[in-house]
Every structure is written in C-alpha cells, then in structure tokens.
Write a structure and sequence with these properties.
The structure holds two protein chains of two kinds. Chain A is of the alpha/beta class. Chain A has 21 helices and 24 strands. In chain A, 34% of the residues lie in helices and 19% in strands. In chain B, 38% of the residues lie in helices and 23% in strands. The chains are: A alpha/beta, B alpha/beta.
C-alpha cells in the first residue's frame, strides 16, 4: 500500500493517492449505489442504516429523499423501477416490517430497473427495540438475499445485486448488520455500471396489476425465478469454497465469516455471499469433503435449519449463541471450550447510560409527566424514549414506531371509567408522521378520550438530525414544503389542539392538566428545536450559573436529570462552614460549558440560586 | 509487517473519540497497514459510554477486539478506563485523560465518583499513563484539542514516527486548526516519548 494522502471531495469520500479509500460500510454502500447507476433512492432513517441515504444524497445525478416511513420509501423505489431506472430503498431491520406489504407483492411483480432493498439489522440491539433476523424475510417473500462481511465486500456486492435484480426480474434484499454498516475499512473506487432497462412508461398489466388472476400467474413465475437463482447460488459468483484443513469445515456468511477466519484461519470454509436461496449441491459436496461441519451464523439458525432440511448433519446453535452479536472469541470458545482465555474481572463502576442532552426540550414535558402520579405514559421510538430513565422515569410503555397513540387508546377502551384522565401518549414529530397519524385518526374516529403529546423538535433527532416532512427542508437541506402539525391534527378531527413551549414548565403543566380534564381526544404539541441542530448548537449560548450561597439544597433542579447540573453532598460541619443551615445535605452546581440556557432549572429554583450569567 | 495491534478508544459521547481514532487510522494506513474500525452510533451517543475499536495488521478480518487482546486502551475519561478491564492483558498500555465526567447517579449525589479508580488497573501490574489532556490542550491554545493531545501521548506506543501524524494533521485538519493541533500532538507525544 502506498502512502495515503487524504483529501476531502465534494461527495465526502476520502480520496487517496493509491486510489484506496477509508470508508464505513454505509459510505461504501452509498458509493456503490452511485456506481451502480441508481437514479431514485428513498428511505427512512434508522440505526444502523441512516448514513447510506445521507451519503448518497451528496452524489450528483441520484435523486434521494427521506420518506415518512419505510413502506412509502419502498413504494417510491418500486415506482422508479417500474419507470425503468435503478431504484434503491434503505431501512433498518424493523423498518422492513413496515415495508413488508409492498415487499411481498413486489416479489410477484418483479422489476424493470434494478431494485435493491437494504435491511440493516442490529444484533445486540445497540439502538433497537428487538434483534429480529431479516434473513427470514428472504425465505418468506421468496426473494434473493445478498450479505457482505465488510465494507469492501459490500461495495462490490451491492453493484452485483443490481445486475442480479435486472437479470432475474426480482427485487433483491441486501442485508447488513451493525458491524458492517458502522465498521470502517479500506476499499477502492470501482467501475460505473448502467441499467439494462430504458426509462419510460411501459404498460405491463399482467405483470404489475396484482389482481388474483394476474397474481396466480406471477406466483408461478416466482417459483421459476427461485429455481434459476438456486443455479446462480451453485456457481462461484456469490458462494465460494475457501480450501483448507478439512478436519473441520465451516459454512458461514455476513460478519460471522470474519470471526471464523480469525478463530480458525486454517480451516476449510464455504462462504455464502448469497444467504437465499441456498446452493444445495455445493453445501452437500462441501459437507462430504470435511470431517465435521459447523454452521456459524449470528442470531437465528437460518442456514442451519435449511441445511439440516437437506439431510446434512451439522453443528450450529447447539454450540453458537443465538442471541446477541458474535465475535472471534465467542466463536472460538463455542467450538473449543478449552480455548477460553482467562480475563481480568470487570471493575464495579457506576453505569453511564445515555441521557437527553443539556437543554433538551423533551425534558420539560417529561418533568411534568413525572409529577403526575396516576397517569400512564404510552411512549414511542426516539431520543425521548430516554424519558423512561431516572430521575424522570416518565414512560410506561414503548413497543414500536407509532404505537404510542393506539396503545393509549386500547388501554382507555379496556379501562373505561378507571382510565379517565390518565392515559397519555408521547410521540416525536418524525415518528408521528411515520405511523402515528394512523393511530390518531383511529382515536378520533373511535372516540378516544386520551391525550397525545407531540414532541415537535423539527427533526429526526436520534438517528443524527435528519430532516422530515415537518422540518421545512429536504434531505439536501434545501427548502421544502412543510406539514403544519396542528392543522393536520385539526383536519383529522381533533378539536382541542394546543401548542406549548416545553421549556416553560408552568405553561406545559397547565396545558397538560387542561387536556387531561377534557372528555375528548386532545393534542398538545410541545414545540422547541433540538439542541443538536447546528443553528442551535453553534449559536452563542447564554448559560445559567449557580449562586451556591443561595442554594437551599432542595434538589428541585437536580430532579430534571440535566447532565449540566450536578449535586455535591456535604457534611453538617461543611454546611455550617458554608453558611448553610446545618441540616442542608448539599448544593447544586451548573456546568456553564454544558448549559445552553434553556431555563427549565431556573424556573424551578425558588431561592434565586440559578441566574443567567451577569444577571 | 508481522505486527498486529488492537487499540480500544473509550470515553463519553461528545469527547472527540471518533476524530482521535481517525487520525490514528490514517497514520496506520500511511505506514502501510490494513485496518478496520468499529463504532457504535445512535442511542449510545447521547452522553453514554462510547468506544471505538481499531485493529491493524497485515490483513485484518474481524472489526472487533477480542476480550483480553487490547494492546492499547486510550480513555478520554478516567472512570471509563476501568470499565474495560476484561479487554486488557498484562502487557497492555493504558493512556488515560484525567478528566472526570460524572455519570447520572454521581451527578445526582446518590453515589460518589469512584476514588482511586485507576488502582483497579495498576494493581494488575498494567502500565498506566495519565495525561492532563485538558490542561495541556488549553496551554496549546484550544481545549477542544485534548483528543489530539491523547493521540500524541499514545503515538509513542505505535510504530510510526511523529512526522507521519504531522502529515495527517497537515492534510486532514482544516488550516486554521492545524497549528494548535500540531502543538497539542507534540505536547502529548512528549509525555510518553
């Protein structure tokens, strides 16, 4: 490798003298989509998929967008494919659940321009509510699935996915996991490819109007296609035997392949770059060539079950864990228990969980909810799910995107009188637009008497500040049409809609109490921008500071759980020495570097111990 | 090029760990190594414990460091150094920024910040280098360069000459921050070199 000089290019990629690039899996996939000739791409942000669309939006000649949810995103991509261009949809694993409806039928319609759907799975649930294994979707939807092991392979494999899609008239599922998406590695620029399709309107009702009569015919085509793809799987195009010691042979794919290569570098390996359909002949031949066969895969025994169904005996989940991520050590120890290393014991330390930022507008809402003891808070997916954590502890359920509103409604219908004035749902602006709207329509239609709080911070914050239909900007940051959330709520029939400033604790409490007392569906929109937005983050701050002489040790500010506020315990002697009452247990201090001047704590302080600097 | 190495970066979300790990990677790539680095994005970044795992060598497969195999632990916060004891071995080098950031239970006064937290590492006979990166960076002209001070302190344990890092800083970091980062790097390297 030559000496590498890094320069920044327009597309954000790092170009080097030796043509080597240092990129994450997601950056590599974005570049590959560009090189594959993708013309239209749509997705919804979700860790670990988000940076694919973010990076792709920086390439010239590719239309990219954030869709309100994954179903819409995939449908946009299907439309572009029908128009004869290469189309791309990106989502995290749970997003595929939302997009499953079009996905299963797109399997029947097939494509014109190549269509690839990214599923970014999150084993270990680093940033997810479950760890479903989306290889099962390939089987269930009768679609081919390709699966790379690292960024360099992802870049080449994605381009092949588009070619495969057009050649076999099928959408292709492309599965990555967190340790491919957010791993950086060395790779190089590649060739540019083009769609074999021609852009234009082409009517093909028998193929793409999925009424029962047409669908029954397409159902047969799907089976023929899968038979042809099984032949592709048998070739060396995606699935290769790496010869080696045949005492132990490994069948593996995805990131698990890398752990096998490190744990058993001498062993024979059948690496599956195509997770579905599987090459039965190749698997049987490989199994026959080794003394003992091990199937190493993360999460479900997907390969193992299908391999056993071929009548091939193998080790798999009898040894390898089916929960959480794997690593080299886990794989080696599972197969050779004696190789377990002796490790230093972990130190006992305070936990450091994530927290809402200093000055986060959500905190004002959750502080008020935490003071209302009899209510049940039905939560949703976003930064604000952290309202669950102490000291606020103001979220009582969280299931999936958009579930907050219907869950509160369902509980209200079950509880009847007992639930009156107690059921609150909390959802962010982006999640509300994703699938919360449907729940609100149901609540209005079926006469819910619950309160919905929309935490409107103008942005999809958790995944790294992506614009959404309420932000007023598109994926490139250009001005875009913006949804007015209060008008939308009124339009679906909500009569009581109130907008409050969540930093104003009193205003917020008054609005929530009023809404809970109403005998109808009520919406409170808590509106203030995310503090991580560049225009807020980079604006001059006007922080608060503590006058500790005035602090009475009431801890009202500490109960906000703001990371800029910390408490110091003191002894009675220290209290007296500082001029406090002897019984005062300590005092609070604001870190002025972290404080961004939201003022929530100052409003709670009754002792004038918290003031703006210079006031 | 038989050398392979595992570097574990640890700290608290927002401390500049990713930039520090990138400068290190570019130096390793310039020296001709293969490398892989694993990061976690999303919910963990909101002020929680964060790590970046960097592996280099002739050919790197796995992006994850095995427990017991971290050759260098570079921690940007004091307590966070002790969180990863199971990743260390007897010969590991540990470079720790002495900055303390209170986790929620400490900030709320429920428990104290653990006293003498680095004893947990030194008592195992592992070499620990403490760096007042915040003060050193301030003296260099910019407190935000504390992460580059840490990279400097770590660089003495890696095979590359200082000039390799200087080249990276000169080409990668925007011109107006170069001088302060070069100073920060040199001050950090002086501690251990």
């Amino acid at each position: 490798m030559a000496v590498i000089i890094i320069k920044q290019t327009v597309a954000g990629e790092k170009v080097t003298e030796s043509n080597s690039l240092w990129m994450s899996g997601n950056e590599a996939i974005a570049m590959a989509a560009y090189e594959a000739g993708v013309k239209v791409a749509s997705g919804y942000p979700g860790t670990p998929s988000t940076e694919i669309m973010e990076n792709l939006s920086k390439y010239e000649g590719v239309y990219t967008e954030w869709a309100p949810n994954e179903k819409v995103g995939l449908e946009v991509a299907i439309g572009a494919s029908f128009a004869g261009v290469r189309a791309f949809a990106t989502m995290k694993h749970v997003g595929v659940n939302v997009a499953a409806d079009p996905l299963f039928t797109a399997s029947y319609t097939g494509v014109r321009g190549g269509l690839v759907v990214i599923t970014a799975d999150d084993p270990e649930m680093h940033s997810s509510q479950n760890e479903q294994d989306n290889r099962n979707y390939a089987y269930a939807a009768k679609l081919p699935m390709l699966e790379p092991s690292d960024p360099a392979e992802a870049k080449e494999l994605l381009k092949d996915a588009f070619d495969l899609s057009e050649k076999f008239d099928t959408p292709v599922l492309f599965r990555i996991t967190t340790r491919v998406a957010h791993v950086k590695g060395v790779l190089s620029k590649g060739d540019m490819r083009q769609s074999a399709a021609t852009c234009g309107i082409e009517k093909a009702p028998a193929k793409i109007v999925m009424l029962p009569g047409n669908a029954r015919n397409r159902r047969k085509v799907v089976e023929e296609r899968m038979a042809q793809l099984r032949e592709v799987a048998e070739s060396d195009a995606f699935n290769k035997v790496e010869p080696g010691d045949t005492k132990r042979g490994f069948i593996t794919g995805g990131v698990a392949y890398l752990y096998v290569k490190e744990a058993f570098p001498e062993a024979a390996v059948l690496k599956l770059g195509m997770s579905w359909p599987l090459p039965e002949k190749k698997i049987k031949e490989f199994a026959a060539s080794v003394d003992e066969l091990y199937v190493v895969e993360e999460l479900d025994p997907f390969l193992e079950h299908h391999i056993k169904a071929m009548g091939v005996d193998c080790h798999g989940k009898d040894l390898i864990p089916s929960q959480g991520e794997l690593n080299t050590s886990i794989v080696r120890t599972a197969i050779d228990p004696d190789s377990a290393p002796e490790l230093f014991a972990p130190a006992e330390l305070p936990m450091r969980p994530p927290n809402m930022c200093a000055g986060c507008p959500h905190r004002g809402v959750f502080f008020n909810l935490s003071r209302m003891k009899d209510i049940f808070v039905s939560g949703d997916i976003g930064c604000y799910t952290l309202g669950f954590l102490p000291p606020l502890s103001a979220m009582d359920s969280c299931v999936c995107m958009g579930a907050s509103v219907p869950i509160a409604h369902g509980m209200a219908k079950a509880l009847g009188e007992e639930g009156k004035g107690k059921l609150v749902s909390v959802i962010g602006d982006s999640t509300f637009i994703h699938t919360g709207i449907n729940g609100l329509i149901n609540s209005v239609y079926n006469d819910s008497k619950t309160v919905l709080i929309i935490l409107d911070n103008r942005i999809t914050a958790m995944t790294g500040q992506q614009n959404n239909p309420a932000s007023g900007c598109n994926i490139k940051g250009e001005a875009a049409n913006s949804i007015n959330l209060e008008e939308l709520c009124r339009a679906v029939g909500v009569k009581h809609v109130e907008v409050v400033n969540p930093h104003d604790i009193d205003e917020c409490r008054t609005a929530l109490k009023k809404a809970l007392e109403l005998d109808e569906m009520a919406v409170v929109i808590a509106r203030a921008p995310c503090v991580l937005l560049p225009e807020i983050k980079n604006a001059p701050h006007n922080p608060y500071s503590t006058n500790t002489d005035n602090c009475a040790g009431c801890m009202a500010c500490v109960k906000l759980g703001c990371p800029a506020i910390s408490w110091t315990n003191i002894t009675p002697e220290e209290a007296v020495a500082k001029g406090y009452k002897e019984k005062q247990k300590g005092f609070a201090v604001i870190n002025e570097v972290q404080c961004n001047g939201c003022g929530q704590c100052a409003a709670l302080c009754k002792f004038e111990a918290i003031n703006r600097k210079g006031e | 090029m038989a050398t392979t190495g595992n570097i574990l970066f640890s700290g608290v979300g927002g401390q500049g760990i990713l930039l520090a790990s990138e400068v290190t990677v570019y130096a390793l790539l310039a020296a001709g190594y293969d490398a892989k680095k694993s990061e976690v994005h999303g919910m963990a970044q909101r002020g929680g414990s964060v790590t970046a795992q960097l592996r280099y060598g002739e050919k790197v497969y796995s992006p994850l460091i095995e427990p017991g195999k971290a050759d260098i632990l570079i921690s940007f916060e004091m307590m966070e150094a002790a969180r990863y004891l199971p990743y260390l071995h007897k010969e590991s080098k540990v470079i720790v920024n002495t900055q303390q950031i209170k986790p929620p239970a400490v900030a709320m006064g429920k428990i104290p910040y653990p006293a003498d937290v680095l004893d947990a590492i030194t008592s195992l006979g592992i070499q620990v280098v403490t760096v007042d990166a915040f003060d050193i960076a301030r003296d260099a002209g910019e407190v935000k360069a504390a992460n580059v001070v840490m990279v400097g302190a770590m660089s003495a344990f890696l095979p590359m000459e200082a000039s390799v890092y200087e080249e990276i800083i000169n080409t990668r970091i925007p011109e107006r921050f170069r001088e302060v980062n070069l100073k920060a790097f040199a001050a950090g390297r002086k501690i251990t070199a």
